[in-house]
Amino acid sequence: MPASLDLHDFEQILSCSPNAIIVRDADDPDRPILFANRAFCDLTGYSAGEVLGQGVAFLQRHVAASGNAAALDEMREAMATGRPTRVVLQCSRKDGSLFWNEVSLYSVNHAPSGRRLVVKSQRDVTARVELEHDIRASTQAHRKRAALKAADMRQALEQLYDEIVERKRVEQELRSTEQKFRSVIENAVEGIYRSTPDGRYLDANPALARMYGYSSPEEMLADVASIEREIYVDPAMRQQFRSLIERDGIVRNLEYEVRRRDGSAIWICENARAIRSRGGRIVAYEGMIQDVTERRTAQTAAIRLERQLLQAHKMEALGTLAGGIAHDFNNILGAITGFAEMGRDDARDRGIPPDNLDQVIAAARRGREIVRQILMFSRADANQRTVLAVPPILSEVVSFLAVAVPATISLALECEGEEQHIVADGTQIQQVLLNLGTNAMHAMKARGGVLRIGSRGVDLREGDDELPPGRYVRIHVADTGHGMTPEVMRRIFEPFFTTKPVGEGTGLGLSVAHGIVQAHGGALRVSSEPGRGTEFAVFLPATPTPAAPRTCTTEGCVADS
Ligand code: ADP
Ligand code: MG
Questions:
Q1: What is the CA(461)–ligand 1 centre distance, in A?
Q2: Ligand 1 centroid vs 334 CA: distance in angstroms?
Q3: Torsion of CA 269, 270, 271, 277, to 10 degrees
Q4: Contact present, 21 and 120 (Cβ < 8 Å)
Q5: CA–CA–CA angle 347, 351, 352 (5° rounding)
Q6: DSSP string covering 241-290
Q7: Cα dihedral sign for 291, 293, 294, 300?
Q8: Which atom of ligand 1 is nearest the CA belonging to 511?
Q9: Which residue has the CA at smallest separation from atom 14 of ligand 1?
Q10: Alpha-carbon dihedral 146, 152, 156, 159, rounded to 10 degrees
Q11: What is the rounded CA–CA span in Å between residue 420 and residue 476?
């Protein structure tokens, strides 16, 4: 190993270094380059000859114009103070291309000359710097993205917050609207409800509860277990309602009768709709109900009046017709009876049995009886009337009937009170009662029974009957016979309506009775139940008991002088 290394040895060592090394004279103000190794020439593109002796200006030319201020300051200070440093700055090569240069700078003292030297060891760190740049850039981008993301998030949060606030506001508005609607429903005049399809109330307003006779909706909800059984008068109507709402989803103006809590019935008009689940299944009904009892009652009264009017017209037409033909008919029947009687006498004289002629005579007599009724019917109010006590007329009728009554039927006469006078045609009133009595006996023919005939005075008040209010004598003819169905009852006053076999009934008895009673300012009422019996009630205006016998016509009563 040599005792010491000379400059040449150092030069050789430095030449082999992979770092670019230059040595400058720090004591010379221009700091000329005293030494440059091969790596320096490789790095910068200059030959050693080109750089040796070059000063500050040369070096400065190769430092990039921008971005190096801090590094240059640092180097300048290190150079002045001799403190070692390391900086990275961008420099240019001979061909002008740029590279990042890591410069380590330190001073050494040159013992032989006593001068201070600066050694600059340099490395191309472009790859590292660029990588750092890239990393920094991508970190920045990442940060930026993250920041953006955060901003987005903040914005989204703000939106969400706004939405929540808005939803809260809408909810509150809805709640207050709902409250308003609640109060509309609570105070509505119409009944409003919601029910399950199988017939339980889920909700109802006070108007409906009131309409159905409950003190509150709560009470109604608790009490009504089945709408079909407890509300509908006719359960078949509920079926109709359900099939309509299931088919159309809606029911409009359906009118039917419902039962109130106290058992009374009212007519209602309903509009309802079905509420369906998302799957289309009906989960509830919602409806609005109006009480239309008043209108329905008025309608029924109008229909009844119309029917009565029609009946009156029919009777009038029949009266006119009957009046016109009955006389001719009576004469024809008279001739038939007369000649048949003569024929019968002849037959007897010749010893031939007169059975067939007896039949002719019997039929003709029946015919004359019918004609007699028709004639009476057509001149109902043309007769003279007198003040009559009713009970004696009744006893007379009962004694007439007693002759014909079979043993299976018992007769009862029931007269109450004394003051039972009417202004009437006695024969006609008898005719009425005989017709009613005959019908009653006919109804009891098969099984027997009791026939009650009687009378009493009654006071009719406004609304009791369609008759004007006042004092009436009410005569009843009641039997315990087969009774009538509603269909028969509707038609019994029609002329020629009969349920009896041909030859037994004419269908005139009740029309005649009806006509006579009406002509007397009274009315004929009937109530009947199939299998239980029938009661006819004849109402005739009562008149005060006369002080003296008087003759009455339709124009009024005149005391007999
Ligand atoms: P007719 O007696 O000739 O049938 P009416 O006018 O007297 O004619 O009676 C008409 C119908 O009214 C009868 O056919 C019968 O069906 C019914 N009717 C009348 N009175 C009674 C009664 N007391 N019981 C049951 N049905 C009756
Ligand atoms: Mg009859």
A1: 30
A2: 28
A3: 180
A4: yes
A5: 55
A6: HHHHHHHHSEEEEEEEEEE-TTS-EEEEEEEEEEEE-TTS-EEEEEEEEE
A7: positive
A8: 6
A9: 498
A10: 150
A11: 13
- Structural contact between residues 18 and 108, judged by C-beta atoms closer than 8 angstroms: no
pTM score, two decimals? Answer: 0.43
7-167 and 191-291: same fold? yes
d(CA 51, CA 28): 16
**Atom nearest to 488 CA in ligand 1:** 16
Residue minimizing CA distance to atom 27 of ligand 1: 439
By most ligand atoms within 8 Å of CB, the mutation choice from 369, 439, 506, 526 for ligand 1 is 439
CATH of domain 7-167: 3.30.450.20
- Using CA atoms, how far residue 79 sits from 12, 65, 87, 92, 231, in Å, is 25, 20, 13, 21, 113
Residues with CB under 6 A from ligand 1: 435, 439-440, 443, 479, 481-484, 488, 492, 497-500, 505-511, 534
Residue from 533, 535, 406 nearest 482 by CA: 533
Q: Could you tell me if 541 and 377 are in contact, meaning their C-beta atoms sit under 8 angstroms apart?
A: no
Please state the atom number of ligand 1 nearest to the C-alpha of residue 483: 25
Tokens of 357: 């002629």
Fold of 191-291: Beta-Lactamase (3.30.450)
Contacts of residue 175, Cβ cutoff 8 Å, sequence gap at least 6: none
CATH of 385-559, one of 3.30.499.10, 3.40.50.1970, 3.30.565.10, 3.40.1190.10: 3.30.565.10
Q: Is the pLDDT of residue 196 over 80?
A: yes
d(CA 344, CA 352): 9
The residue whose two tokens read 């299931």 is 246
User: Can you tell me which atom of ligand 1 is nearest the CA of 506?
Assistant: 3
For 214-267, write each residue's pLDDT tens digit. 999 999 999 999 999 999 999 899 999 999 999 999 999 999 999 999 999 999
Each residue's pLDDT tens digit, 137-168: 888 888 888 888 888 888 888 888 888 888 88
Listed by start position, the domains of the chain span 7-167, 191-291, 303-377, 385-559
User: Quick check: helix, strand or coil at residue 43?
Assistant: helix
